Amino acid sequence: MGGIKDKVAVVSGVTNEIGETISLRFADEGAKVVVCDIDQQRVDTIVEKIKGKNQQAMGFAVNFSDPENVKKTIDEITDKFGAIDVLVNNLDESQGWEIADVTDERWEKSLAANMNAVFYFCREIVPGMRKNQYGRVINISGIDYLGGPGKSNCSATKAAVFGLTRSLALESAKDNVTINCVIKGDIAGSDISEEQSEKMAARIPVKKVGKPEDVAMAVNFFASESAKYVTGQMLFVCGGKSLYSSMSV
């Protein structure tokens, strides 16, 4: 697909395999990759893997719930590279409860991961992209945004990303900045047993679970020149589960 060689790509949220796979895929495409997460050890590990591919990489431990910490991090990145070309927001808090069990603490946790962090990173990075007349933003959300029993906190906060994506796409379109969203379904990492994978697959129309690589390929498409005429869109990477999501939980 091309188009991201030598671009500066920021990936926020790399504690899961999806974030790592996206980062390594960008490195394979020749991008300079900056990874951000709260876990410094995890960040350092991924940075070393990227450098092992002979690509430039930086890593930052970030408190995503602190807007000042996010701003400081973005300032450091721009001081180093001059501009940020690609942003991937990959934070995820998927644990859900019925409304009566959503305590203030649980609600704030969902807000912080699923909505606030996306907003903070976009607020700090998108204006610079617009000024530079180039940018690609890919927000990653989950199929929970469609709704489901015991998912009130997840559905509300992940649905907010949909509205943010569309609004930013309209604001930024004339400046050659595209804003899109990948909606992931059931994605199996290496920690999922074969039994768990089979149980998940039974609820998916294609009868198999997705892999982190499936999400990374979708993200790479939105970041590439192949998607230069695509903005404000939602791409479901879910094996068809979104077609009857609320009926299949």
Automatic annotation (TrEMBL):
It comes from Desulfosarcina ovata subsp. ovata. This is 3-oxoacyl-[acyl-carrier-protein] reductase FabG. It holds the Pfam family adh_short_C2. One of its GO terms (molecular function) is oxidoreductase activity. The lineage of its organism: Bacteria, Pseudomonadati, Thermodesulfobacteriota, Desulfobacteria, Desulfobacterales. Belongs to the short-chain dehydrogenases/reductases (SDR) family. The gene is fabG_1. InterPro entries: NAD(P)-bd_dom_sf (IPR036291), SDR (IPR050259), SDR_fam (IPR002347). Keywords: Oxidoreductase.
